[in-house]
Write a structure and sequence with these properties.
The protein is of the alpha/beta class and 339 residues long. The chain contains ten helices and 15 strands. The protein binds threonylcarbamoyladenylate and magnesium ion. Magnesium ion binds next to loops.
Length: 339
Amino acid sequence: MITKVKKIDAESLAEAKEIILSGGVVAFPTETVYGLGASAFDDGAVKSIFDIKGRPNDNPLIAHVYDGYDLSRIVDADPPYAAALRRAFLPGPLTLVYPSRGKVSPRVSCGLDTLAVRVPSHPGAQAFLRAVGIPVVAPSANLSKHVSPTSAKHVLDDFDGKIPLILDGGECSGGIESTVCDVTGEYPVVLRPGLVTREMIAKAAGRCEASAETVRPGERAKSPGMMYKHYSPRCRTMLFPVGDRAGAEAAYEREKAAGSRAFLLGEEKLAKAWNARGMSAFSLGNTPGEMAARLYGLLREAERRADVLIAVEPAGDGGVMTGVKNRLKKACASEDIPH
Ligand code: TXA
Ligand code: MG
């Protein structure tokens, strides 16, 4: 199969619609990361998403809809605080998990009686979802466990020859996946941190909790995707805590001495200091927003150029930094599930 990469215009949107409505798969941009889309109503199409990605079949998918789509067609209950969250943050990088049974293909939610719904703000995503007219399930458009894609080129690197069409909407401005927030209970619970922060949700809804990131043995994760090692570059990785710059530098020297192509990764001022001393280093940037936008592109660059990536956690906590650190930990964790 030839994979076409096309700018978003009337012709490519018509082609995308035709592919989705006939059970095929199209990659499209969002403001967070690129998605690999298929009709939420088509069992075979949903299954092919899992197959193409190599995704575990207990990790449910998010249904994407255009702004103004009638939610009551796919969800069973909608608490008032969820409406407040939609007014405050949608379209945007927030996914809400609603009670829902039997409205879309049973494969979408992997047997859970909930459905995750997202209204992306990227104009290209909106144009695509409007053209298609039905909910489109879309995981991030990367091979399972690989780094999420923030450009059409990243998608092509993972799926060349495996999907017919990539809609190219440029670089994603957000850079980390949407916040996933459960709205099935009395108050919202963040299952995956992102650019819409727990603090922002608490302000809009009156209260918001965050689910624990680790799952005890025998427990089922509320958001099953969070159990897996994720977002990993294909090189060795190490992660040093904030403040252990010396540990990272010692590891770098050891790796260099052993003949490895080693790269450091840290916030701007650290990276500048390393570069000034002749060390190879990637800069995450200064602000949490910059770090989110750059992280995945840097992880993909690291796997092309490095044998080992040695990261130092940025300083600061809460807000967008919670999402940045969550992804950095998952990318650079050394062992596989669960963690
Ligand atoms: O920004 C994003 O959300 C991107 C773009 C393409 O929209 N999509 C994305 O999808 O990150 P994916 O499949 O890579 O991650 C979906 C996350 C997983 O952690 C999954 O477990 C969780 O959402 N999820 C999906 N449906 C759920 C449900 N019914 N209940 C709880 N968690 C759910
Ligand atoms: Mg993903």
